[in-house]
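Below is a filled-in request sheet from our internal design queue. Each sheet records the structural input a requester submitted and the sequence that came back. We keep these sheets so that new team members can see what a complete request looks like end to end.

REQUESTER: design group, bay 2
PRIORITY: normal
MODE: inverse folding
CHAIN LENGTH: 201
BACKBONE (tokenized):
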């Protein structure tokens, strides 16, 4: 059995995620899922953007959307089609201030793309641009009084996780949960996902 600081950190992160998931708005989650389903049914494109570790979580989500049958792309990759009115951009930034993500959201809005922001700060520049905001509690790399208050609410005084780890870990599990709900609503089985999985890896 793993012990020491590694075990303490894992348990601290798990404890945070268990508490944080109860603070995520079901209404915000519902708006996000409904928007994604509408995009799929209407043949619209879904774009994903995030920077750093948040971007990696975004790519993992994009992969599952592909397996679900979505026409999905990751902003910043070489193969990226033109965005059109009615498409959807899922923009991820814990702080809501990541320049690349905010700039992409602004560009998307200017051509009629619906913007979903996933962030810890709804009142951030990204949150103010978005059509839909999903607030994910987390300690971001931006040290602030709001971060401190958020940690106190969750009963975590000094989480053993650096920078934005708590946001990113909560985000990963939340988006995996969204994938399961999408599977259920769309009537997609694991076998369907397997049939769309890459076979030249």
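RETURNED SEQUENCE:
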């Amino acid at each position: 059995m793993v012990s020491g600081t590694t075990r303490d950190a894992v348990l601290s992160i798990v404890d945070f995620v268990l508490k944080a998931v109860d603070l995520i708005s079901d209404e915000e989650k519902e708006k996000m899922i409904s928007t994604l389903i509408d995009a799929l049914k209407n043949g619209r494109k879904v774009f994903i953007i995030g920077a750093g570790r948040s971007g990696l979580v975004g790519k993992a989500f994009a992969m599952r959307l592909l397996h679900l049958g979505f026409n999905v792309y990751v902003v910043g990759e070489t193969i990226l089609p033109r965005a059109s009115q009615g498409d959807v951009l899922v923009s991820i930034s814990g702080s809501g201030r990541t320049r690349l993500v905010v700039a992409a959201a602004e560009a998307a809005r200017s051509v009629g793309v619906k913007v979903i922001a996933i962030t810890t700060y709804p009142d951030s520049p990204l949150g103010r641009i978005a059509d839909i905001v999903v607030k994910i509690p987390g300690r971001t790399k931006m040290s602030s009084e709001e971060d401190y208050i958020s940690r106190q609410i969750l009963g975590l005084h000094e989480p053993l996780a650096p920078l934005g780890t708590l946001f990113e870990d909560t985000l990963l599990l939340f988006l995996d949960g969204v994938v399961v709900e999408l599977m259920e609503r769309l009537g997609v089985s694991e076998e369907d996902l397997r049939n769309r999985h890459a076979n030249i890896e």
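SHEET NOTES:
- The chain has a mean pLDDT of 89.
- The longest strand covers residues 45-50.
FILED BY: M.R.
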